[in-house]
Amino acid sequence: MTDHANKAIEWLMRAGYGARGVVYLIVGGLAFFAALNGGEAEGTSGALNFLIRQPLGSILLGVTAAGLFAYTLWRLVDGVLDLENEGDDLEGYANRAGQIMSGLTHAALGISAIIILMKGAQASGGDSSAENWSATLMQHPAGRLIVIAAGITTLSVAIYLFIKSWKAAYRKDIVRKGMAPKLELAVRFGLAAHGFVLLIVGGLILWAGISANPERAAGLGEALRILETQAFGRILLALAGAGLAGFAVYCFVMARYRIVPRLAGDTLKTLASSTS
């Protein structure tokens, strides 16, 4: 690829991670303050509605939507061209498929942002989106199996995030400079917390498919509200909110310090590089 193409891909990646960070920072912040002051936690759609209600909200939401679509393009190119050097074996293709699915998921979120921009706050249907698409899918012969597969996929992503946090697998992709080394604790906590919340989301989607009841499906906001109803629910919700804000920190670190392995070469020192 040309230098211009490499730069374009890099900027798509950075804009995408930045937009993703904004969304999760709002989700985490709203959950944390709901735990402290009462009120209801919100999911990603709630975060987008929150943005448009702020001063210059339409501009903020428009920029965020553009960033989410940038993340989609980055992940599609990433997966197709194997910019992470995943390889051509079965595991490599599975990882590349996961990258493409991540991009498509954020495209759906970007579309939600555009709908809110066109129709105003609360136009997105809130966090009933998981229930809505589950109900739509179950009207088709193979729909129930697709919902079950979506639940299993979400659970797999949750487990992947736990492993990524535990093994600090992200370190090979982050340049060793600036604030990156000092933010590692927040990054690891954020990855694990996001994995924990996705365990709840994936479990609810899987159970919706198994029971053929789309009302059991739920998104991120509903998962946070379920946490709040448990024993010590306020504490759990506060921890989840802080963790999702930590995941936002992870996204911002990736936006600032991440490399594209196939384009970066071997000259840059990453967090995984020897300090000697």
Structural class: mainly alpha
What sequence of helices (H) and strands (E) makes up the elements?
Answer: HHHHHHHHHH
Q: Which stretches are low in confidence, meaning pLDDT under 50 for 5 or more residues running?
A: none
CA-based shape:
globular
| Beta-strand share of residues | under 5%
Largest sheet: none
> Overall mean pLDDT score?
84
Task: State the gist of this model.
By secondary structure, the chain is an all-alpha fold. It has helices spanning 3-37, 44-52, 57-81, 90-119, 129-137, 143-167, 184-211, 220-228, 233-257, 261-264.
Q: In words, what does this structure look like?
A:
72% of the residues lie in helices and 0% in strands. It is mostly helical and 276 residues long. Helix 7 (184-211) packs across helix 9.
Question: Helix and strand layout, with pairings?
Answer:
Layout: H1 3-37, H2 44-52, H3 57-81, H4 90-119, H5 129-137, H6 143-167, H7 184-211, H8 220-228, H9 233-257, H10 261-264
Please name the defining characteristics of this protein.
0% strand; 72% helix; mainly alpha; 276 residues
